[in-house]
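Worked Example 4.2. Consider the chain below.
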Amino acid sequence: MATSILSQPHDRFFKETFSRREVVEDCLRNILPDKMVEYLDFETLEVCKESFIDASLQNHFSDLLYKIKRKDDSDVHLYILFEHKSYPEPWTAFHLIRYMVEIWQLSRKQNPSRRLSAIIPIVIYHGRRKWKVDTHFADLFEDFEPFKNFVPDFRYVLYDLSCYSDIQIKGTILSRVVFLLLKHIHDDEIGDHFEVLCELLSKLSDQHTALEFLESALKYICSATDKISELNIQKGIQKAIPDLGDQLMPTLAEKWIAQGLEQGLEQGLEQGLEQGLEQGLEQGLEKGREEGRLEGLRDGIGLALRVKFGSAGLDLQKQIASIRSFQALKEIEHVLLEACTLGDVKSLVQKLK
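Applying the procedure from the previous section yields the following structure tokens:
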């Protein structure tokens, strides 16, 4: 089955927000030690477009790597490797070093005569439990004191959001919104926190940027938790974008349905190509295309339900997940975009099931 648009919401939000250079720069300035920050030339900060992740590491990394030059040497880059965790992972250092070796390996191929560049691994943690895992790679080994010269070691930078109050989380508006949302995504009061974050977004001078971040935050919340109400969503949107608040919810709902359909179709075609190698290319592609259309449309409708009706739309979303008719889903989409109440949509779903 095609990968759902609702799967791995933490990864998606993390990658989407940390792909913004201004968020990463502010993060580095507030997380890294001052002595280290002084050596970095932030004018040269850029995301690495190459992917260093092999298939065995896909479940461990969001593939976010930046490079930056040192102020004292214009030809030398440092790499900044970002990873996030929503639960304590004892083997984090092991997964990091595997990724780091991949980066160095590619670097050797590109510049065989150049010495290796340093890599600064940064782990952003936003889970409910305290992070009690040692950040040293050497801590993964048995007692090695007599043999310590034969055990490699490095430390990753841990930014544990659970250790900081909201006031202690510093930075620009955008980076604070990102970190505070990650910190509170598991809370029962996420709806109240969302409204506060929307007030922060309203202080941005660039309304386009505020709208982009608002959309990212809404998609993340609607995918990752069922503890936000329609009222919270409405109030938050109105606070963040006062001029567009009333128009924004139906517009976002329509956009997300279209995005879900497009993404589902793309994933379905990819899956269909794999199936086609085994059971006939044309048949596999057609099956993958149909599965992708259904999956994408269901996911888009699910997000639209949440943004229009909050947690009240969750039960209905589960019922829609069982509908296998594309035409029936299109009927639901049409009614959903025009509906004033959840009951309007619910009656149609019961009729079509």
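Strands lie at 40-47, 64-70, 73-85, 119-125, 157-160. The CA atoms of residues 335 and 345 lie 6 Å apart. Compare this with Example 4.1 before moving on.
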